[in-house]
Fold this protein.
Amino acid sequence: MNFLPVFLNIHDRNCVVAGGGEVAARKIAMLLRAGARVTVIAPQLCPELQEQLDEQSQEGKLVYRAETFHDDHLADAVLAIAATDDFAVNRRVSEAAHRQRIPVNVVDNPALCSFIMPSIVDRTPVVVAVSSGGTSPVLARLLRARLETMIPAAYGRLAAYAGEFRGRVKHRFSQPEKRRRFWERVLQGSFAEMVFAGKDQAAKAWLERELENETEEPTKGEVGEVYLVGAGPGDPELLTFRAMRLMQQADVVVYDRLVSPEILDRVRRDTPRIYAGKERNRHTMPQESINDLLVRLAREGKRVLRLKGGDPFIFGRGGEEIETLSGYGIPFEVVPGITAANGAASYAGIPLTHRDYAQSCIFVTGHLKDGSVDLDWPMLARPKQTIVVYMGLLGLAVLCKQLVAHGLPATTPAAIVQQGTTRKQRVLAGTLETLPDLTAAAHLVPPTLVIVGEVVKLHRKLAWFQPEGNLPGDTE
Ligand code: SAH
């Protein structure tokens, strides 16, 4: 190890920063976050620092001296940072600090440093520090970015609660081994999940109950819970952090037809999977309805991941599923996903609203019922509006005809997007008049999404995603 990792208490202690530029501003912000008093020494300050000074000067946390650095500036300092762009000044700061045995950091000059500053993930009171030992700050930053995605934002709150209960847990479990097991269970299980989901009161009540409970084992017969999670339109990169985390910790996953294999791959390996699609030729789903299945699994004490395509609350019947759960008093949480309209439109280069072309955007389902589509046509056929039709492939001809019959010009741009956001994405663009024939000739593979409105003509200019599915000539 080239450096000793430590966390330094600089609360209310004086730290000296030489330099008035943006780098100095960043270091100063960090010192202030850790509760220090900071003296900044520089002939002049950049606007960012001047602003910081105006904000902080009231409390006397930040003091400015428009001077050039000299040794006396370090008189009562516990830490020094040199962040000027003048090598000679930086060296003087370093030498003075070394003489006075004060830890010193010189920006971008490891040789002059007695300490270096790590990249951090801040979930105060939890702080993760990453250092490459001065060899590659970029590498440390990249690693930090990965940790950032792995540690939920609410980790700080989790730690704060653990701190609050620490004394009582210690009192309750006198043996360190039992105490450790208790905390391991609490910090990885329902308690943590409740905190991450913002159910703080319920989390604390749960911890209270666990503490009163005589055994160290989980309460028997405890109900599980259901995570209703939107998996997005197909590209796994569009999963949310929360979805990813729940995919790692569920005991069983119940998934839809629309959930892509690439996404299912990201569920923890040994998690049992139950297919709840609706295709007639597959019998994986038992007789009971999906709602009942979720209830049964949760009652067995399982953490059930109900994974749905897109967003669970947009044409996903997510509302109905959790209504049943709520009726049975089973805890659940809902994680939004990127809905097909957002995903397909972005990847096809079709902005759903645009100052010049569309001030509103409507999502409808174009489900065929007895050969017709039951929609509020006058409302849909308004100018300066984008219409996104889910489940619109079979009813496409009816849809286009009705929109024209209710006043939209037959030349209104319209597109159909096959398997949006995936490697098989294909976009056919035409008009209300031409799209049905274009589509009929193209043998599209579901799922597909229809987008109607002036914004569609931007597709040719703004398309950026070029997967293998796209064929030349798809756009008229
Ligand atoms: N809850 C989902 C929608 C479920 S309804 C969501 O928010 O996206 C199913 C319909 O969504 C499909 O018939 C199709 O119209 C649309 N859809 C879902 N994923 C799609 C994709 N990757 N590309 C195009 N359309 C998609």
Q: What stands out?
A: The domain at 225-338 is CATH 3.40.1010.10 (Cobalt-precorrin-4 Transmethylase; domain 1). The first strand starts at residue 14 and ends at 18. The pocket of S-adenosyl-L-homocysteine is lined by residues 233-234, 258, 308-311, 314-316, 339-340, 344, 390-391, 417, 419-421, 447-449 (CB under 6 Å).
